[in-house]
Amino acid sequence: MSHPSSISNASVEPVRHLDELEELLIDAEIDDEQVQHTAPVVLRPWLLLLGLVLVALNLRPALSSMAPLLGEVSDRLGLSAAQAGLLTTLPVLCLGLFAPLAPILARRFGTERVVLGILLTLGGGIVLRSCLGEVGLFAGSILAGASIGVIGVLLPGIIKRDFAGHAGTMTGVYTMALCLGAALAAGATVPLSESLGQSWAMGLGFWALPAVLAVVFWLPQVGKRQGTHNVAYRVRGLLRDPLAWQVTLYMGLQSSLSYIVFGWLPSILIGRGLTPTQAGLVMSGSVIVQLITALTAPWLATRGKDQRLAIVLVMGMTLAGLFGCLYAPIDGLWGWAIVLGLGQGGTFSLALTMIVLRSRDAHVAANLSGMAQGIGYTVASMGPLAVGVVHEVTGGWSAVGWIFAVIGLGAIVAGLGAGRSLYVNVQSEKV
Q1: What's the whole-model pTM score?
Q2: pLDDT per residue over 30-56, tens digit each?
Q3: What beta strand segments (E) does 244-355 contain?
Q4: What is the CATH number of the domain that holds 170?
Q5: Are 321 and 332 in contact, with CB atoms under 8 Å apart?
Q6: Containing domain of residue 404, as a range?
Q7: Using an 8 Å Cβ cutoff, are 15 and 302 in contact?
Q8: DSSP of 235-260, one letter per residue?
């Protein structure tokens, strides 16, 4: 049995190329013996595909639907800017806190059952968020964030397991579903609330319906592959590895900017003179164009000797888009929103790419992914909270540019470390 300390953190020569996007699909259950030795049997792949797409569509609306209505919700419930910042922070914090539970729950109850149960929890959280006033708003946001954190970890593994021969294509479909869900919620929530009796609660509560629809089409998957799971592999030493921390910090800091956009961009744009509907549409457009770089950036980044230049370029685009939306003349807003979307699509996909490229095998990648998501999303949650606090203290939006700059520069520094052609100084070992 090899000892982790015996592995040198040597340069990777040559850098591995991602011939297909399927490499970015990290199976949270890869360490389980059953997963390693049980071949998938998919009787109705079209039904599974439909179920996966519908589940993926639900992983962003709970986050992006709140932003265009945040001002109205705050006014109706008497929330301060700091409380509104907490409201945008809690779901992201729960992404990090609950993501590590996903493989544990999957081993205990089976992946398909967990996805079904958590979908119901997600729908319940969205409904709760629209009821019971301030208490329901915060409690529902916590439930929704926790649900998304668990499902988001499990879904890529299902895709990699059951569509092994088409995982690259399915990764593209999965990514499109994520972006589409976020964009639809960002652009449609305000018109929906206006058409449903000028009710912000109805506008937010509407997004429980796609969750119910996903439950209906996911039900046929329950009951599959529910045997006993035994952990067969173990990875030690990640928390002591500087490169692992650089990957984690890059994941967390770039995510922080993403969730600031999800939580606050419409409010910033409304403060600059846009209507809530217009602000929601701008964010929707920015999210949609993320798809372009989300699918192309990993491929391009692996064509060089390392990923440092790519990381600097996409983070530079992200910062340019953020500063443009915050300070540039309003006439050019759509252009800056597109630049922002292209940058953020690239930063997120490169964060996933770093997890794969910095790992010697799939077991290390799964554990590094758990660390990057668990700790990274916890770090990310501080960004939206900071924006709310600064907005409350200053009474405006201009000062939040300093938050963008600090987080963005921190992400570049971490990315320059994570983007080096190295492996984390650990390896998987048989239990």
Answers
A1: 0.86
A2: 666 555 445 455 567 788 889 889 999
A3: none
A4: 1.20.1250.20
A5: no
A6: 4-430
A7: yes
A8: E--GGG-HHHHHHHHHHHHHHHHHHH
